[in-house]
Amino acid sequence: MVTINHTTDTRLLDALGAANSSTRLQAALAAGTRPDPALADALVARCAVEPDFFVRDMLTWALTRLPADVTVPKLVAELGSGRAQARSQALHTLSKIGDRSTWQAITRSLLHDPDDEVARSAWRAAVVLVPSGARSGLAEDLATQLGRGDRDVQLSLSRALVALGDVVEPALRRRFTSADPVVRAHARATERLLHDPDAGFDLAVDEAKRIVALGPERTANPAC
Prior knowledge:
By secondary structure, the chain is an all-alpha fold. It is 67% helix and 0% strand.
């Protein structure tokens, strides 16, 4: 590990908060290229407020370059932040670090966070960190949110469910009879993606909506 001297450290900290996004990106790259645990607090704090997606992604990479015993406690603390971006980015970074001991920090409140970006990050982190014995329970919990949000939110949820594998099928099939047609269509589209990962999500949703509208029997036998 290369130690960053005080002068360089100060310049780097200033650059992380510069007005120009290219300067901030270069600073995050430098922090990851020359990892120094002393920068962990600054990197985590910047994740909570950084407006540029590419800079946030570089900040995450820089944090993954630091020892997990330094970064993980700081990131877990961010999960209780009142700022949605702080929670979302901490979840994203924890998923990249992949420390299974942080599974317990992915609470139900995060999985059901009212902010869509936080919830999506929680879903992605959960399927990476979940122990094998908890996969069915996670599938059931995620399936309660079928039909939530716009196309991007629904696609994220479907991908998370599909990533859990066949354990999701019972939870999906229970939603086939939901009173909500949006939930029924989303559940069927997710099941199709589970069995045919190459199927396009939009096509899967369109087919699922047709099945919901016509009924599975009429769809199977269009002549009826």
